[in-house]
Amino acid sequence: IVYSLFECCCILFCLGFTTRQSEVIVSALVKIMNTNLDVIYMDMVTKVQQEIALQQVMSHIGGVKKDMIILEKSEFSALRSENEKIKLELQQIKKHVMDEITKVRADNKLNLNLEKSRVKELVSLEALQISSFCCFVFKHAQQDRALTQTDRKIDTEVADLKTMLESHKLDNIKYLAGSIFTCLTVALGFYRLWI
């Protein structure tokens, strides 16, 4: 309820205060109200000041956005270059593994061919010995037994080679999968850092 100064003085006068007391109380109340209003006005800002502050905040936000974009681009290019390095390393490792597999295959083919030529020589010697001896049947059985053992040896070595090749292939797949998961983990780590 808002009263004029005169009404306040009248109310206080009706309550038993003298005119002088009423005037002093009303003037004290007016001073208190003015002081409170000054304090309230000091805490308030004008529309112009508010717009200036808003413009300053927006310019700071714009600067931060630009910095974030620049930082994100530099981090992305660094991540891309790291990814390229890993790809090159994987290609080198793959080439090295393929070279090793080629060497193993060549060595095994050479050993197999040597074993075959040795077996052929044995067979030819056996044939000569069989023709020179009377016991054709006995020698023939020995030759068959030697051929069977040689075939078993060849089959065993071929099976060992296949097992070794499958093992190398599995190791290569494991290494490649591990490398891919490592790259993905690094990429997800960087992604989580920037989110």
Automatic annotation (TrEMBL):
Belongs to the CCDC90 family. This is MCUR1 regulator. One of its GO terms (cellular component) is mitochondrial inner membrane. Keywords: Coiled coil, Membrane, Mitochondrion, Signal, Transmembrane, Transmembrane helix. The gene is Mcur1. Residues 1-16 form the signal peptide. The chain crosses the membrane at residues 175-194. It is found in: Mitochondrion membrane.
